[in-house]
Amino acid sequence: MRSRIGKEEAIAAGLAEIAKDESDADGVALATAARIAAGRVLPIGDGRSLGVGGSLLGETIVAATGWAPHVVWASARRTGDLGEAFGLFVARDPRAADRPDLSLREVAELIDALASMGNRLAKRRRLDAAFARATPLVTKYLAKAMLGSLRVGAQGGVMEGAIARAFGASVDDVRRAGALVTDPGTLAVLARDRRLADARFELGRPVAYMLATPLETIASPIDPSLHVVEDKIDGVRAQIHKVGNDVAVFARGLERVTAAFPEIVEALRFVPGSFALDGELVALGDGGKVRPFQALQARLRRIAPAPELVAETPTAFVAYDILHDGERDLLAAPWSERRAALEAFARTRGPAAAFSVNGCAPAPAALDGPAGQATLDDLLDPAFRAARARGHEGLVLKRVDAPYDAGRRGQAWIKVKRAFATLDVVLTAAEEGHGRRAGVLSDYTFGVWRGDEIVNVGKAYSGLTDVELDAMQRRIQRLSEGRFGGVRVVRPEVVLEVAFDGIQRSTRHKSGFALRFPRIVRIRDDKRPEDADRLEAVESLFASQVESGHREEVPADTPLEERPRPAPKAKTKAKRKKADERQLSLFDAGGEPARRRG
Asked: Which domain, by its residues, includes 391?
């Protein structure tokens, strides 16, 4: 089902039906259903891992069905999913229809038990007992949920809309409460009980992040006297919560990634009291200087890094907001009050090695000359250049009278970024997009000339209007020269101008480089393919970044597996070596950390 409204209505009907069960007064069944529909099994903020991956579930399938392992895995490859295969095997059992099945409360108890036990054999026994009672349909979806492969497109706004529909609540009220409690299960129970107004921020459970809006999309005038300017740090957004002696690090998707940053946890463990901070994780170089984001990528690919990696690439936390000081929730306080509290916190609690505070300055009010002559971009130019010289990627304007608006992307925070450069590139391949652009060839791979061949340097998903995409769709269909899965190979005739935020070394592209955050500026119909830029231009731009300190050159003898590459996608590879080599994604919204499969 692709329709957002259709998804909301279907999920709402299910939640409303579950809520009719009078035996579920505590909401355990409802909360479990809401979490599973949202693609997770444990509450957001729960520090535990389910510990059920493909290998363990594969053994369970073999024991439950009697099929040989190679048959089970062949079926999983054919269906594309181990849970799908499990359901099909159980459906072949003529006695499956007589199974008693599992209630949602029993599923909740199973999930809690699995997350609480570390013994593999004990987990197997619990899984065997549960799946012996499950019908084919429940088997299929429960297995998918455990593996994190139950993707029904019900995260974020869809889930909030469904909860609002199910219980006759205002969507705005649901979103406001959801930004504070973040867990879809807790949110559903609050909505059922008409207690959305009771939603509160709790230390140890992350709130939805306040987000910044790009300057280019701001329509209303900006009053500099009401704003301050901060550097936009080129790191990874994170919240750090300390409750007693327990320190938790939460990533952009609200998942707990504490084990990935042991040096930060250890330093903050000795900061007195409880608190919650918002800021950025960065990699540190000699003298405590912040290194480029490229250097941080080695740490982002490890759930629990080896001590050697921690020593080679130490990280630090740069705080720019305080959400709770241990005595009071500060979300409703204006930025000026929160900033004063953050600076007082840094002065009195220390140690300085635990974290640093991002600097800020009043927004520039005017330049010399007639009023209105200078644009805001002109006014910010000196501050922008200074931030870039410090190794950061831009600026953030923050209103001094604004509260911390959790989960919202309003105009209280405005990010100022500028393209590092533009290149004229040649379109080489196209894929269909997702969501609103499903079925539309909107994802474009492109390259530059190296000698007499075109080598790819990136892929862009944005920048064209719907009208331009429609025209490009017809054009690409005429230029298609073949397919590799869902990728259409395109005859090199279309020239695009792309802007980007930087260039990094890449083992994925034949060129050896990848553009960072590329977006299409325009279609260059005035240029022929042979007029596009050459690889020498990319190399020159990369060298200028290295010289300015915004990139680091990788020594030629660096092993392939240690070279920087893009942050991992949510879907993990079939096999992992060991726990400290598993990949970590800090960018996906929701879901458990990547788990071992196969």
From this structure: 213-416
Choose the catalytic residue: 7, 140, 144, 232. 232
Is residue 426 located within the same domain as residue 403? no
Tens digits of residue pLDDT in 385-407: 888 878 788 899 999 999 999 98
Which pLDDT band, with edges at 50, 70 and 90, does 589 fall under?
very low
Q: Show Cβ contacts of residue 304 under 8 Å, excluding neighbours closer than 6 positions.
A: 259, 260, 579, 580, 582
The DSSP 8-state label assigned to residue 208 in this structure reads P
- Is residue 280 located within the same domain as residue 346? yes
Last residue in a domain, options 364, 383, 416: 416
577 carries an active-site annotation: no
Over residues 395-445, the pLDDT tens digits come to 999 999 999 999 888 889 998 877 778 999 999 999 988 667 777 889 999
Which segments of 413-567 does DSSP mark as H helices, in order?
Answer: 466-479, 535-548
Same domain for 113 and 93: yes
Q: What is the pTM of this model?
A: 0.73
Mark whether 405 and 427 lie in a shared domain.
no
Does 395 share its domain with 453? no
Report the amino acid identity of residue 174: V
* Angstrom distances, CA of residue 462 to CA of 110, 423, 519: 43, 15, 5
List the end-to-end C-alpha distance of the chain, in Å, as a whole number. Answer: 29
Strand 453-460 to strand 227-232: parallel, antiparallel, or no bridges (unpaired)? Answer: unpaired
Give the model confidence (pLDDT) of 184-201 as tens digits. 999 999 999 999 999 999
Could you tell me whether strands 213-214 and 236-243 are parallel, antiparallel, or unpaired per DSSP bridges? unpaired
